[in-house]
Design brief:
It is a single chain. The chain is an alpha+beta fold. It is 24% helix and 29% strand. The strands form six sheets. The protein has a five-stranded antiparallel beta sheet. A four-stranded mixed beta sheet has the order 1-2-5-3. A hairpin with a 2-residue loop joins strand 15 (220-221) and strand 16. The longest helix is centred in the last third of the chain and has 19 residues, at 242-260. The protein starts with a strand and ends with a strand.
């Protein structure tokens, strides 16, 4: 396990934004993960793909999860929580399994995907989970899919204090290469660049459509911009601060509510202080 002091957190997020943390523990194994959490505590960070970290940083410990072991059998895979989800999709297809292809371009770890119930194309990781293991009060506990409380882009695990250690994911035997090609094609409208993916959850009305109708596509604050290609993406266009992104989020929420009476709900998670 590596330990860093007063290091910048931007390198650990897809936004490439964020101040420093008091201590950063980089856990390379499940054992590291359990030790770091049990001995020191801290905020668990996977790929940082749904995280906006304050410019002022985080006055606490961060546990960067790189626990990456996985084991396939005839019914699916057991994957530790630091496993890259796109990599796991590729490995499952390579072994003749299908079912996870919808997640081939979700830039998350297994743990983060489970906590947020990540998904695409009307499918979610919670649909595939048989059970997970969490660290709870120093003990390893197994939770069934039902106990995880999966809902649209969230779960009962979020804010529970449990640390996800790994997940058992059900798969089926079948050819998945064509489904990956279709999934990639279906996400071509999503912009490239440094972002957290979709900023807002989609309700009965699509968030991108509402933001676009409010005339906010292309709105810029500092180095951050509401993507002209897809209005539910805010891009770090070069040197953006967390404050820049946060201002655009607040602006979009206020304008959409004023124009349409709809309260947008963020998928992005805030870490640190935001004013």
């Amino acid at each position: 396990m590596q330990i860093f002091y007063n290091q910048n957190l931007a390198q650990f997020t897809t936004y490439k934004i964020g101040g420093t943390a008091k201590t950063i523990f980089v856990a390379q194994t499940k054992s590291d993960l359990v030790s770091a959490h049990s001995l020191y505590g801290g905020y668990p960070l996977g790929n940082g793909s749904k995280l906006l970290i304050s410019d002022a940083g985080f006055d606490g410990n961060i546990i960067v999860n790189r626990a990456g072991a996985f084991v396939f059998d005839e019914n699916g895979v057991w994957a530790e929580s630091g496993v890259s989800l796109p990599m796991l999709v590729a490995q499952s297809v390579k072994r003749g399994f299908t079912g996870l292809e919808f997640a081939c371009q979700i830039p998350a770890t297994v743990g983060g995907a489970v906590v947020m119930n990540a998904g695409a194309f009307d499918k979610s990781i919670g649909d595939m989970v048989k059970y997970i293991e969490v660290l709870r009060d120093g003990e390893i506990v197994k939770l069934t899919a039902e106990q995880c409380g999966f809902r649209y882009r969230t779960s009962a695990i979020k804010n529970s204090g449990d640390l996800v250690l790994g997940a058992r994911i059900n798969l089926q035997v079948g050819e998945g290469k064509q489904k990956i090609t279709m999934a990639i094609s279906g996400r071509k409208n999503q912009p490239s660049g440094k972002s957290c993916g979709s900023v807002f959850k989609n309700g009965e009305q699509k968030s991108a459509m509402l933001i676009e109708k409010a005339g906010l596509k292309g709105l810029r604050v500092g180095g951050a911009i509401i993507s002209p290609q897809h209005a539910n993406f805010i891009i770090n266009d070069g040197g953006a601060t967390a404050s820049d992104v946060y201002t655009l989020i607040r602006t979009a929420k206020a304008r959409v509510y004023a124009d349409f009476g709809v309260r947008l709900q963020e998928e992005v998670i805030y870490l640190g202080e935001f004013l």
